[in-house]
Structure formats: structure tokens, C-alpha cells
Amino acid sequence: MAVEEHVLPVAPHPDARLRVYWPTEEPLDASSVEKVPILVYFFGGSFTVGGIDWVGLDAMYRARASDAGVIVVAGEYSLAPEVTYPAQPEQCWAVLEWTVAHAAAIGGDASRVAIGGASAGANLAAAVALMNRDRSAHPLRLQILEVPALDLTGSHLDARAVSPLLPGFVVRRLLRPIVRDYLGADSARIAGLDPYASPMLASDHSGLPPALILTAERDVLRGDGEAYARVLSASGVPATCVRYLGQDHGSAGYRGLNPAADHAHRQVVATLRTLHDDPVDYSAALGVSA
Questions:
Q1: Which active-site residues does the annotation give?
Q2: How many angstroms separate the CA atoms of 153 and 159, rounded?
Q3: What is the sign of the dihedral through the CA atoms of 181, 182, 187 and 191?
Q4: Is the pLDDT of residue 166 over 90?
Q5: Taking the CA of residue 254 as centre, how many other CA atoms within 13 Å lie in the half-sphere pointing to its CB?
Q6: pLDDT over 80 at 284, yes or no
Q7: What is the overall mean pLDDT for the chain?
Q8: Which of 77-86, 93-102, 187-196, 215-224 has the lowest mean pLDDT?
Q9: pLDDT at 290 over 60
Q10: Which pLDDT score, from 0 to 100, does residue 169 have?
Q11: 38 closest CA partner among 60, 15, 61, 10
Q12: Phi and psi at residue 236, in whole multiples of 5°?
């Protein structure tokens, strides 16, 4: 399939890199008759590892673009601890801004854009959804958050995912060095006060795009994803959360070995295919004004 890379300036932070994956053998452009939906996606890796060049991630982007018939814009952000917050959400915001601004030029439809990510990437996707609401209000159609980390204070971690006998403070202690690497020396204050670091803790979640959240039974982060679904629903945002039983934090990366991972891929693809349809108005069912 056709791919193309771009580097974006994000002053005063490091440049951001992105890669466009078309679901076609040749790149689409402004002359394309049918405009294609777009998924902007951010990889996971505890904010410290990963990148769009990783073979498994590259394969996933290609599969989702091909299977869902969408353009995938894979964003790359700087890794901690060499670069710390708020560089990463600002870089991811720049990727979304570039995507909307260049949607027509890459054969995409700026009114059919979804945002997503896994783990730390889901944190950044949720943060960018908040930034979009606060800054530009681009018409995002969907957010897909896979095994997301959404509260960097650790208050929503679910130790029961490992054992009913495991004290919660143990898993919170394991989170601390990751958060310190990402947020820097003032990590505790930032995690608790800045919604772009901990989207769960935003004072207002209204006006965000509908969400599909996938969690895993054997993952302490299931508490984050499931609590976020409740927070979104209470704010009038359509949210669906699915817990995959018997799975752990990394299970979805093994489609060739794990039937549940293949099903999760198909669920994401089926959800992305809804971008080809007209949006559904859920306001009456949720009891909120349109």
C-alpha cells in the first residue's frame, strides 16, 4: 500500500513525525472522487519506548487501513525521559492539526476523522480529544482507546486484575517511575492537576467524540478504561467499553496466536467502518440536547 512521511515543527518542542498509510496501492490526493475517512493513531509503550518504525506497529497500521478502508495517520512523539511532558501531547496535537488541514490533499474527509491509541498512546489520544474540544473543535467522529492509561495518579488502577490479595499501593508504586520519567520532577502535581496528562481528571468531559474503549481482564489499567467510560457516559458522551476476558495488557499484539486479539482487531475495524456512514445522533437516548 502507499505510504508517505512528514516531519512537523512543534516549537518549542522537538519536531513530530507522522506516516500516512493509504488503503490503496497509489496515494490518493485532492483529485480523488471519493474522500476517505481518516484514523489518527498513537502507539503505546509507557511513554518511553516504541515508534512508527516498529515492525509490529507498522503491520497493524497497514492492516487497519486495508481492512477498514480508511487512511491511517500514525503519529510519532518524543520518548521520555529524554523529552518530557508537555512535549508529547503538543506533538500529537500537531499531528491532528496537520491531518485536518491536509485531509483533502491526501484524499481524506476532514468531517470523518477518528482518533485513537493504545496504552500511553491512548492517554495521548484522549488528551488530544480534550485539546481539540478546548482549542479548535474539529468535528472528530470517534475515539478508540485500547487498554488506556488515563489517570497518572494511579487512583483508578485495579489490582484485582492481578490478584484479589494484591494491595493497591503495590501497583501504584510500580506506576510511579513511569510517570516520573514522563512528567519530570513535578510529576505528582502535574498528574493530578493537568487534564492533558490525566484525561480522567478533567473537570468537564462534555463535547467529546463517542468512544470505544477496550480493556483486558488481566490488566490493572482496566480500571482506568472502565472508569473513563462511566465518566464519559455521565457527561453525555456515547461510550462503549468492552473487557476482554483472560487477556492481559499486551494480548492484542498477537493476532496470529491469540483468537481474542484477532477479534479485537475485527471489532476496531468494524467500528472504523462506521466512519463511512452518516453519524448517528444519540442525544435523545442520552437525554442531552443536540
A1: 119, 219, 249
A2: 14
A3: negative
A4: no
A5: 9
A6: no
A7: 94
A8: 187-196
A9: no
A10: 73
A11: 61
A12: 85, 15
169: cell is: 499501593
Q: State the pLDDT at residue 187.
A: 85
211's grid cell: 468512544
pTM of the model: 0.95
Fold topology of 3-276 = Rossmann fold (3.40.50)
Distance CA 154, CA 149 (A): 9
Domain boundaries, the chain: 3-276
Are 208 and 130 contacting, i.e. CB atoms less than 8 angstroms apart?
yes
Percentage of the chain with pLDDT > 70?
98
Q: How far apart are CA 275 and CA 270, in angstroms?
A: 10
